[in-house]
């Protein structure tokens, strides 16, 4: 996780976040000066998470949080005063919001953020793997349709159609999918 947005209304909170991220080897977090800039940054870029330390609570801050969540920000870690923690944990029930009561235990906070980083990495790997599998399925569907066309129009057997597509791909130095697409363009209206 390298794309982390920091929004802290106090210098102490900003320094805390920077120290925690340094221990987790996040070298270049983005620091927003205020909520308006943070919202603009989230709208323009992709962040793995946001670390937010608001001073107090207001309806405006809650609306801001909801706007950030609607912009598909994956997770928001929020540090709030102990007096507000119980109130806010009832109000902010979104699973993307991780609420921590001040004073925060640095070890627990680091462990939570580290777990999130590992989870995000694994989810990205799974998403990439899923996309590869979906691409393979799409290739197989097109190749299968091309085989059916060859069987129907050229009266080939399934084995001959398969071999024909492979040979076209090798001879023309194309992928099997591209060779199959060319066959479909030729025989399908």
What would you give as the CATH superfamily of the largest domain?
Answer: Response regulator
How much of the residues is beta strand, in percent? 5-15%
Shape: elongated
Q: Please count the helical segments.
A: 7
DSSP summary, beta strand count: 5
Strand and helix order: EHEHEHEHEHHH
Walk me through what this model shows.
With 189 residues, the chain is an alpha/beta fold. It has 2 domains: 4-104, 3-Layer(aba) Sandwich (Rossmann fold); 129-187, Arc Repressor Mutant, subunit A (Orthogonal Bundle). 63% of the residues lie in helices and 14% in strands. The chain is built from 7 helices and 5 strands. It has helices spanning 11-23, 35-44, 59-70, 82-91, 106-154, 158-171, 176-187, and strands at 4-8, 30-32, 49-53, 75-81, 97-102. The chain has a 5-stranded parallel sheet with strand order 2-1-3-4-5, sandwiched between helices. Strand 3, helix 3 (59-70) and strand 4 (75-81) form a beta-alpha-beta unit. The chain starts with a strand and ends with a helix. The mean pLDDT is 88.
Keywords:
single chain; about 190 residues; alpha/beta; Arc Repressor Mutant, subunit A; 2 domains; five-stranded parallel β-sheet; about 65% helix
């Amino acid at each position: 996780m390298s794309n982390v947005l920091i929004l802290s209304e106090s210098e102490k909170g900003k320094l805390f976040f920077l120290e925690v991220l340094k221990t987790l080897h996040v070298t270049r977090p983005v620091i927003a000066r205020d909520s308006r800039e943070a919202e603009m940054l989230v709208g323009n870029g992709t962040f793995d998470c946001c670390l937010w330390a608001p001073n107090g609570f207001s309806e405006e801050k809650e609306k801001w949080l909801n706007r950030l969540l609607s912009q598909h920000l994956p997770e928001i870690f929020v540090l709030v005063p102990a007096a507000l923690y119980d109130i806010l944990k009832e109000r902010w029930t979104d699973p993307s919001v991780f609420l921590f009561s001040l004073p925060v235990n640095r070890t627990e906070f680091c462990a939570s953020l580290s777990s999130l980083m590992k989870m995000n990495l694994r989810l990205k790997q799974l998403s990439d793997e899923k996309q590869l599998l979906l691409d393979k399925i799409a290739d197989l569907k097109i190749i299968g349709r091309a085989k059916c066309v060859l069987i129907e129009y050229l009266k080939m057997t399934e084995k001959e159609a398969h071999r024909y597509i492979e040979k076209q791909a090798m001879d023309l130095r194309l992928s099997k999918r591209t060779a199959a697409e060319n066959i479909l363009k030729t025989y399908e209206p």
